[in-house]
Amino acid sequence: MQQKRILIKDTDLKKDRTRDFYTAFLTEIQDKKLEEKVQLVRVSDIGIYGKGLTVRVLPENFLYCDVETGDISRIVSESVVEGRPIEALLHKPDDKQLRLVLRNCGLVDPESIDDYIKHDGYQAIATILEKMTPEKVIEEMKISELRGRGGAGFPTWLKWKLTRAVEADQKYVICNGDEGDPGAYMDRSVLEGDPHSVIEGMMIAAYVIGATKGFFYIRAEYPLAIERVNRAVTQAHEYGLLGENILGSSFKLDIEIRLGAGAFVCGEETALISSVEGKRGYPRPRPPYPSVKGLWGKPTVINNVETLANIPLIMLKGGKWFSSIGTEKSKGSKVFALTGKVKNSGLIEVPMGTTLKEIVFEIGGGGIAGKKVKAVQTGGPSGGVIPEDFINAPVGYESLQKLGSIMGSGGMIVMNEDDCMVDIAKFYLRFCVDESCGKCAPCRIGGTQLLHLLEKISEGKGEIEDLDRLRRISRAMQKAALCGLGQTAPNPVLSTLRYFEDEYKAHIVEKKCPAGRCAGLFHFSIIEEKCKRCGLCFRNCPVQAVSGNRDQGYLIFEEKCINCGRCFEVCKFEAVSRG
Amino acid sequence: MKKLTKDDLQAIKQEELKKETANWIKVGLSTCGIAAGAQDIYDFLVEEVKKRNLGVSIQRCGCAGMCYAEPLIEVKVEGMPKVFYGKVNKETAMKIVEKHIGGKILVNDHIYDIRSSQ
To answer: What is the CATH code for B21-116?
Structure first.
C-alpha cells in the first residue's frame, strides 16, 4: 500500500467534537496497524463550510462530508486500505473561483520578467505584432465583450475604436491604478503580484490606438506596487519590450510612472489627466471625452488595472472563449476584495453571474461570530448596500445596479447586525465630503448638507421630514454634479434608505439605534442582579467611568462614559445593558 | 542588452522551464503578506535551507488571495502533495522544514489548501 494521508476538518468549528473524532480515527488506524502507512492531519481550512466533519483521503482525493464517528472504520477499510470511494458520503466540491486576472498572482515571481515569460508572458503582444492589424484586435475585443473593470463598465473595444479613429500626431495610453474605495485592494494585488501582465495589456492598447507613450498612474499609498511596477518597466526596457522597434516591428512605446498624491477624485479620468499633467486634480465636464481630447489635449485611452490585466489572456485564448464565461451582459470574471464581517476575508475572483450568497457563504465561509449577515456593500462610496433578502442576486453590471448598488471596482464589505445603516451612510458620505474637490456646488454643498442631516439623525435630533430632504438633495446631486464622485456620492444614502428605512425611523421616532453604533442614542448601565462583581468592566474602562469595588459592586457614570462599549464586550455575565 | 525577438521569448521560456526544480517553497510577498510578517519567514527559510543544504528553492510570489491566512507559503517537495500553509510563524516554518521537508509528513493545524494529491 502506498503512503496515504487523511485530512480532517470540522467545518462547523466544534473543538471538542474535532478532538474526539481525531482520537477515534487515530485509534482505528492504530488498531489496524497502519501507523506506518497512514498520516492523519488536522487542517485549518478545506474550502467547505457548514458540512459537519469532513475527511479527505489522499492521494485518491476522496472527499467525505458530514462524517460520523461510526463511519471511521468503513473509511479506513474501504477507502484507505482498498482505495475505493464510499459513494454515500462522497462530496463533489465545485470550485466557485475562476482566476483569470489573478492567474499569475501567487504563481510568478513579480520581480522577474523571465518568470513572467515562462508563463506565456509577452506572447500575446508578440503574436499581435507579427500578424494582427489593430482593427483585427478591436474585432477580437468586441467578440470578447470585455467591459471596463473600474466600475462604469464601458466596452473596452469601443473606447479603443473611438480613440483610434481620431487623427492626431500623438496619442497616449494611461493605466488607472488610483484605487481609492475603502476596503478595496484588487488593483494593488495585481500590480504587486503580476505587474508585467498590466504592462503587456498597455502595450496592446497602445498598439491598437496608435499611442507611443504610456503612463502608469498609481497612488502613492502603494509603495510596494510602485516599486514592483518600476522594476518591471525597467526590465521590459532592458529586454527591448519597451522602446523603439519592439520585437522587431515598427511599434514603439515608452512607459513612465506617475504617482497620485492621495486624492480620491483623481481616480476620475478627467481629474486623473489633470494630475498627470502636473496640475491640480480637478475634473472637467465631458464631452469632449479623453478619447478625443485627453492628456495634453491629445486622444487618450484610460483603462483600469484589472481591465488591462485581462487583455493578454483574451488575446491568447480568443474573444470567443472569454465571452463564453459570465452572463449575457457581463462577460468574464471579476475580482472582489471580500472584507468586513466575514470569516475568510481576502481577494477572490469569480465568473460574472456568481451570486452574492455563493461569494459570502461558500467562498467567504459566512459571517463571523455566528452572527447573521445583514447586508453586503458593493462599489464603495459610489455603491450601495444590498440587503440579505437579495443575497441570491448574481454579480454583474446591470444586476447590481437594478438593486440600487453598483459592482464598482470590486470592494465587497459584509455587514451584520452590529452595523448601523445610518452610520454606514454617514461613513461613506464623510469620505466623499472629505474627498470632494469643491469645484461644483452640488457636490460641495449637497454632500455637506447630506452629512449634516445624517449626523443630526444619528444624534437623535432627526425629524421625519429629514428623510425627504435626504432624498431630494440626493437626487439633485445625481443630476447636477460635475463628475462621477458627486453623482454617485448619494448612492449609499439612497440605498440604505431604500432597504433600511425602518432603521432611520428608529433613530428619528424612537431615538434608538438598533445596532448600538450611534453613540448618542444609547447608554450603558450595570444590571445589579446579574452582576457578579468580578471587576472586569472596571479594569477595562479606558476613561474610568466605572467606579466601585468588589464588595459594593459597580456603577457606570454617564457623564464620563464615552460609549465605547468595552464594558459591554468584556462582561461574561451579560450584566452590562445597552439601551 | 540586445532587443528581443519572438524567438528569443520562446528561448527564455524554454530556459526557464529547464531551470524548474522539483522542490520549492513560494512565499507570498505582497503588502498583505509582508504586513503579517512574510518577509521574516522568507529570510528564515532561505537561511534554514542553506544551513541544512536541503536543495529546496525559496521563491517569492504575489498574493494568492487568502489574505486572512497570511503569511501564506506554498510547499512542493517530491513525493508530497502540494500544500498551502497559512498563518506561518517561525515556529511553524521550522516544523515545515523539519517535518514536511525532512520527515515527509504534513504539519498539523496550518494547512489551508492542497492543490495536488501527490
So the answer is: 3.40.30.10
